[in-house]
């Protein structure tokens, strides 16, 4: 399918680099990006005859002689180069869609998506499958492009992929055997234009399913249930009558599985992720004993309500992965109160009013980043104590001076990081570095 083609890759990053290498032998490829790139990577591509051009106007380079545009997931769908490709009738796809066509082995593909919880759910599944001795390959939005994995797949492998809406939007032929939808809430609306469009993109994780394919769904999440009422997949539900969390016990098939006191992870959101994982294990006929082993040791995923340090009784938590207010609500639910909340980042017209029911848990909000004026208005309108800073580091200096023993300092921005950071991991690392140097 991708042979003897003229291809423009819009956006380098890791996925652009890997898909360029995957396609490099049999195609004419040009990679563009607005930023400088790793010199060793550029040399590797150059040896393969792949060109790289740094430019802020890639649409100038695109013309009707190109056969395909491969778009980095971070590139917005209304980017001028994308719009030009569409007007020229050039197919727009992404790295995962391309790599899917290079899977030539008998494997089972499991895709995990959702507004929140997909990384933790994916990681839990991976750890348990490894513990059970299953041959599993992990990739996708969690950090390893599918293009990097396809050459290592073997018959009988399980391919486990975290899939974001930014990836799903440019998928056409891609198909899973099992899809997990953790939940849905309004997020990334600047990218998709509306919540309806965002949900329609999430629906694509069930593309090409028939009744032999499986969907694992959150029965307590209204939007997930409404979105999937037309899918033909065989459906399994968590947060249901038989698969639930009740009085500190996780039940599967109406039988008690584990007491939440025996789990390292805390918070109802994490127990929901565990339920989704357990249903998958049941489908795959994997003994729950391996889940028990992992859950008693698994401390969580980095940048997701990650405990950093206790300084004179003040506990610091890094929840940089919180890129929407719903994720911040999840974090707030995990603590009893006395929270110094560092909130803000890229302005994506997010609404912070949903935080209001948790007002009594918040001691003070530290409004940071591009969206801080929107946060300040929220605080003023609801009589919430606040401080304003452009940069997170300055807010932390204030917190360190004012927080008292028993307080919680929580970085849970409820916003994307792209106003000041290349990715949310960079924001989280800065938070941890500052706290560990107090």
Q: How would you describe what is shown here?
A:
This protein is an alpha/beta fold. It contains 16 helices and 20 strands. It has helices at 13-23, 39-47, 80-87, 95-100, 118-131, 146-149, 165-168, 189-192, 195-202, 222-227, 268-284, 289-295, 325-333, 372-381, 392-402, 424-436; strands spanning 6-10, 28-33, 51-54, 68-71, 92-93, 108-113, 136-140, 158-162, 178-181, 214-218, 234-238, 244-246, 249-252, 255-259, 306-311, 314-318, 339-344, 362-368, 386-388, 408-411. It has a six-stranded parallel beta sheet with strand order 7-8-6-9-10-11. The longest helix has 17 residues, at 268-284. The radius of gyration is 22 Å and the shape is globular. The N and C termini lie far apart (55 Å).
Structural class: alpha/beta
Please, how many helices?
16
- Biggest sheet features: 6 strands, parallel
What is the strand arrangement across the widest sheet?
7-8-6-9-10-11
Low-confidence spans: pLDDT under 50, at least 5 residues? none
The whole-angstrom Rg is 22 Å
Record keyword descriptors for this entry:
single chain, 438 residues, alpha/beta, six-stranded parallel sheet
């Amino acid at each position: 399918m991708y042979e003897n083609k003229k291809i423009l890759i819009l956006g380098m990053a890791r996925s652009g680099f890997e898909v360029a290498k995957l396609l490099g032998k049999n195609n004419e490829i040009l990679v563009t990006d607005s930023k400088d790139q790793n010199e060793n990577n550029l040399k590797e591509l150059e040896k393969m005859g792949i060109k790289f051009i740094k430019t802020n106007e890639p649409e100038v380079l695109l013309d009707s002689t190109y056969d395909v545009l491969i778009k980095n997931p971070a590139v917005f769908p209304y980017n001028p180069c994308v719009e030009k490709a569409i007007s020229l009738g050039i197919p727009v796809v992404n790295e995962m869609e391309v790599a899917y066509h290079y899977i030539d082995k008998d494997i089972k593909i499991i895709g995990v998506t959702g507004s929140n919880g997909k990384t933790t759910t994916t990681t839990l599944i991976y750890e348990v499958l490894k513990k059970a001795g299953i041959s599993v390959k992990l990739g996708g939005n969690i950090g390893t492009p599918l293009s990097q994995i396809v050459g290592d797949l073997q018959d009988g492998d399980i391919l486990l992929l975290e899939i974001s809406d930014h990836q799903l939007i440019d998928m056409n032929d891609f198909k899973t055997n099992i899809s997990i939808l953790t939940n849905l809430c309004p997020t990334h609306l600047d990218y998709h234009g509306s919540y309806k469009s965002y949900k329609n993109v999430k629906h694509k994780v069930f593309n090409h399913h028939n009744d032999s394919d499986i969907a694992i769904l959150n029965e307590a999440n209204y939007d997930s249930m409404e979105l999937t009422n037309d899918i033909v997949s065989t459906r399994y539900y968590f947060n249901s009558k038989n698969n639930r969390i009740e009085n500190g016990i996780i039940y599967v098939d109406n039988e008690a599985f584990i007491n939440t006191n025996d789990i390292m992870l805390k918070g109802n959101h994490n127990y929901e992720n565990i339920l989704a994982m357990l249903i998958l294990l049941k489908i795959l006929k994997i003994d729950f004993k391996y889940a028990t082993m992992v859950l008693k040791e698994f401390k969580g995923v980095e940048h997701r309500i990650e405990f950093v340090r206790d300084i004179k009784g003040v506990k610091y938590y890094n929840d940089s992965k919180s890129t929407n207010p719903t994720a911040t609500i999840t974090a707030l639910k995990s603590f009893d109160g006395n929270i110094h909340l560092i909130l803000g980042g890229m302005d994506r017209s997010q609404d912070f009013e949903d935080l209001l029911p948790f007002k009594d848990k918040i001691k003070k909000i530290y409004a940071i980043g591009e969206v801080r004026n929107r946060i300040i208005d929220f605080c003023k309108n609801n009589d919430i104590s606040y401080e304003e800073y452009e940069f997170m580091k300055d807010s932390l200096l204030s917190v360190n001076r004012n927080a008292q023993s028993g307080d919680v300092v929580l970085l849970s921005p409820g916003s994307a990081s792209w106003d000041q950071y290349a990715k949310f991991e960079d924001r989280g690392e800065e938070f941890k570095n500052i706290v560990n140097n107090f």
